[in-house]
Amino acid sequence: MKKPLEMEMDRERAIVSRKTPVLACKGLKKVYGESGRALEVLSDITLEVAAGERIAVTGSSGSGKTTLLNLLGGLDTPTAGTVTVDGQSLVELSEAGRGRLRNRALGFVYQFHHLLGEFSALENVAMPLLIGGAAIAEAAQRAERMLERVGLGGRLDHKPAQLSGGERQRVAIARALVTSPTCVLMDEPTGNLDRQTAANIQALIRELNETLEISFVIVTHDEILAASMDRTLRLRDGRLVTAPESS
What's this model's pTM, rounded to 2 decimal places? Predict the structure, then answer.
């Protein structure tokens, strides 16, 4: 049994851990070459995501929201600036190192779910664990538990074509969460769903955030989803600003 002093030290360490950003970027800039000239998509983006925090990023089409998400996830390289995940700089890691860090600390959910059609829901969710080196039996067990967590315990052997749009998105969310990441990046997770299904996904995100204390950064045009987040930021002219509160 721990002594009172040890328990107090554990509490202090937990507080420090929660204050340390799980994902952060500073001075982030992205420039593309187009028709022989430079096109600056993002300029001087600075952002910190706290443990368990839910952030929505909004903006007009073409404003750079997906580009920002790809940079935060280490799927693209910034022209300038830094991105850190769990205190590790993505820029300083090799491609293999970035891949390992992504697999361990980040989850991704896309508008078009990107499930592998030839594999079952269970196999799709187990894939990140297998890539990370988990044994087949362990990966299957963890994938099954996560699918049960998102309400798909009865759909383990179903392939994507046998699932509804909402169910496919739930499989994608389970796949993003199965490695127990510190942060999940979502690109329009309700963009192709009807209003009721979108509301169900929104409720699921909130429940998973509250029970698993995973952070979420969600790019969205869905005003209702954005309003349910802890913070809403807007991309405008390549810069990230605090969105005005709805009246």
Answer: 0.83
